Amino acid sequence: MHRTPLLILLKAHAARALDAHEAAMTRATIEFVESHPHCLLRSELKGHVTGSAWIVDAKREQTLLTHHRKLDKWLQLGGHADGDPDVRAVALREAAEESGLVKLRVVGLEIFDVDRHWIPERKTEPAHWHHDLRFMIEADPEEKLIVTSESKDLAWVRIADVAGLNPEESMARMVRKTESAIRQT
C-alpha cells in the first residue's frame, strides 16, 4: 500500500513525547491517512497531506520564512504532496522550488512536527484540511534566495523573533522544539 511508509512515519512521531495539541493532530492525521486512499492528492476535497520544511541555519539561530502570497502571513516553506508518498522528499522539493536554495540537508529522517490546519475556501476550491508533516532542513543563510510567485518575500529570521512575524501556536511550537534541540546539544 502506497500509504504504509507515511503511516510508519506518523506512528513513530505519535510515539514521541508530544504536547497534547500536536498529539491530537497527529492522531487525526493518522486516521485521515488510514481512511482516505487519495490523501496525497489535491483532488481529495476533505483535505490532503502536505510537506513542509522548517529551514534552519547550522547553529539553529535562524529560520527561513516565506511571506505566503495567498495566506498573507509568514510561514515555513512547503506544499502539496501531489501524489508523492515520500513527504520528506516533498518538503525538500518545496524548499528548493520556493527559495532557490540548492544546498539543503535534511536533519534527521523523522518528522519534526505535525500540524493540521484549516484552509479557507477560495475561488476554485472548497475549504479543506491540510495535514502538514514538517521536517527540519538545514541551509546556509549566505546562499542566494529567489522569491517566487508563491511568496511576497523570503527572509532569514532569528528563531527568537519568529513570534513577531507570526504568533500562531503552530509556529511557536516549532520555535520551542528548535530551542529545546539546542539545549540538548
In summary, what is this structure?
This protein is an alpha+beta fold and 185 residues long.
Describe what you observe in this structure:
The chain is α+β, with helices and mostly antiparallel strands. The protein has one domain: Nucleoside Triphosphate Pyrophosphohydrolase, CATH 3.90.79. The protein has five helices and eight strands. The protein has helices spanning 4-14, 20-35, 87-99, 162-165, 169-184, and strands at residues 47-56, 62-68, 73-75, 77-80, 105-106, 113-119, 128-138, 151-158. Strands 1, 2, 3, 4, 5, 6, 7 and 8 form an eight-stranded mixed beta sheet that branches. Strand 6 (113-119) and strand 7 form a beta hairpin. The longest helix has 16 residues, at 20-35. The protein starts with a helix and ends with a helix. The model has no long low-confidence stretch (mean pLDDT 94).
Distance between the termini: 38 Å
* Count of DSSP strands: 8
- The CATH topology: Nucleoside Triphosphate Pyrophosphohydrolase
Question: By helix and strand content, what is the structural category?
Answer: alpha+beta
- The top-level CATH class is Alpha Beta
CATH architecture: Alpha-Beta Complex
Shape: globular
Number of structural units classed as domains: 1
Tell me the major beta sheet.
Answer: 8 strands, mixed
Any idea what the CATH superfamily is called?
Nucleoside Triphosphate Pyrophosphohydrolase
SSE order, one letter for each helix or strand:
HHEEEEHEEEEHH
Q: Report low-confidence residues grouped into runs of 5 or more.
A: none
Query: How much is the radius of gyration in Å?
Result: 16 Å
Total of helices: 5
Beta strand %: 25-35%
